[in-house]
Amino acid sequence: MAPSATPGHRPIVRYLRYLTIFLAGCSTAAAKAPPMQNPNTAHYTAPEQAVQAYFKASDQCSGEILRSAFHPAAHMLWLDKAGALHSRAQLPWWRALDTASPCRPALERSLRILDREGPMALVEAHSRFDTYRFHDYLLVVESPDGWLIVDKVFQRLEGDDSPAPADETEVRRILDEKIRAAGEHDSALLASTHLEDCTYSAVNAKRGTPYLRESVSEWAAKYAARKARNEDGHEAKWRILHAAGSGSIGHAKLEVVSRGTRYIDHLLLLKTTDGWRIAAAVWGNPQGLTSGS
Predict the structure, then answer these.
(1) Which of 139, 158, 177 is at the close of a domain?
(2) How many domains does the chain have?
(3) 216 and 119 in one domain?
(4) Are 207 and 130 in a shared domain?
(5) Residues 188-238: pLDDT tens digits?
(6) Could you tell me which residues are beta bridge partners of residue 214?
(7) Which end of the chain has fewer CB atoms at under 10 Å, N or C?
(8) What is the value of pTM for the model shown?
């Protein structure tokens, strides 16, 4: 048994006891505090979170945060004032952000989900700076690594410029030709409706492959092979669910039922000097794969 404290030592003992309790409480609180999220391992659970991370990356000039928001193979595409096409891959965009000096955050940002069905979403984003604005359309998908932006088109607007709405008839004409190309397995017609480096992201389209990227050239090769085998693509039934745009950027949603399974396409378009062209796409089964997929 330990000897009892003398009267003169009791205040010190009491102080040490309180100090021990206080430090133990601090240790417990620290142990329960959640760790800070590493942008490289972020797992966004909604499309809005990925877009907000993209905003934060731009405002903080952080390539690290940008990597958490975009698929590493994603591109952004735009037209300059002369109508020339430009494309930027992720690596040069990361480097441009990391070396930006000074870093100028946007004065205002906003986003709107234009369409979301299953693991695919189409998002509109606006960013306002002092003398100009950016207007984006983004394709966002739920990948094995969480929700990620997989492609983007945008236009830069000066001051209070308000571009005219897209002529829906012109947009639908390109979509109709894309659908005709699918029915006839016409690779040349397919190529005429797309930008030559257009990429299709597939979600829930093939068992064992939850996410896949394929170029329009790969699809054209598939069409050519099917046509050589005299396969008929008219079994698939297509519908244009919506088509719209503003200025030089546009978007559309298609539906196709093939062999009893319903798929959707989200498309991003640019209005080039040769007319509207499909710049990027996401397609897949919004309900998930069935046993026969």
Answers:
(1) 158
(2) 2
(3) no
(4) no
(5) 999 999 999 999 999 988 877 889 999 999 999 999 999 999 999 999 999
(6) 200
(7) N
(8) 0.84
